[in-house]
Amino acid sequence: MTDSTAALPTGPSPDRRLRVLAAMSGGVDSAVAAARAAEAGHDVTGVHLALSANPQSFRTGARGCCTLEDSRDARRAADVIGIPFYVWDLAERFKADVVEDFVAEYEAGRTPNPCLRCNEKIKFAALLDKALALGFDAVCTGHYATVVVGADGHRELHRASDAAKDQSYVLGVLDEQQLAHALFPLGDTRATKEEIRAEAERRGLAVAKKPDSHDICFIADGDTQGFLARHLGTAEGDILDETGERVGTHTGAYGYTVGQRKGLRLGHPAPDGKPRYVLDISPVDNTVTVGPAEALDVTALTAIRPRWCGTPPAGPGAYTAQLRAHGAETPVTAELADGELRVAFAAPVRGVAPGQAVVLYDGTRVVGSATIATTTRAVRARG
């Protein structure tokens, strides 16, 4: 494992003036990031991504380039900063690569992360490709993460200076080539969110007091199960306990995720009276299996489609892993074998669902990420 290189120069070619395309969602973070990039002397152009064919169908105030309100807020921020501003229509690409992928993953019994997919397919693929074709040097966003240049000249992705705001998990899909063209002006600040808002107010940005939203931007009312039902229809099935006994029914197995406790509507309480959790989802026979919390303990997993933020690991190694955007780190050993990432946990973890991303860290450095395919459960002792 290596020490943090957070003291090294950050971003792509920081010693020269860059042509920067600032992705402006209409929120405070991306506005301050664009302002900082311009203040640093870069030639900045703002762009708002129109990701919905019908922006009114997305929730008002949603964070993430989704509403007419957000587009107008982004334009006003660009005017205050004094940079050119455009709106780019990526609605069809977003629908295919993010929304349809989200629905297909749930239909297959997996639990996807649409923000991670958006970073991979939209902001640092479709947007970055277009930016480079137009002669820009880098794409700037309001993510809290840091790009540093290692001693060997390779760029690395590191956690933000303030771990409480760190967003490196959802950027773990970026490869070194993409990192070479990424700027995260907020990543090296230890300012609280209140201080970022105060900075926005000092700069005259009206978004300073705009509330954040952490919901999925393309689900207008925040009702994920209702959204999936509209796209996949309803199909009544059984909820089973560990013995195979029917303890309830559901209207679509896709509406559940491993580790879920609330909203199960079980007709029969557990014999011991303890809460039950979703253990498995089977789209083939449309069943959901529930059981006690300890049955969720996972000791190992296999993940597919690995993406590396630099050179892939040469062999087995000790790392820490993060399994959710705001989850804690846990010690693991991991190795790449036959194109799959195999991870073993030092202690059992719970709520690990196929479809989620596992992101590996070496200190503060993001090693890479992969999509969880299978898990190995701890053996439960029975009396």
From TrEMBL:
Annotated positions for site Interaction with tRNA: H143, Q356
EC number, as in UniProt: 2.8.1.13
CDD domains according to UniProt: MnmA_TRMU-like
Residue ranges constituting the tRNA-specific 2-thiouridylase MnmA-like C-terminal domain according to the UniProt record: 299-372
A cellular-component GO term for this protein: cytoplasm
Function: Catalyzes the 2-thiolation of uridine at the wobble position (U34) of tRNA, leading to the formation of s(2)U34.
Descriptive protein name: tRNA-specific 2-thiouridylase MnmA
Organism of this sequence: Streptomyces chumphonensis
Gene field: mnmA
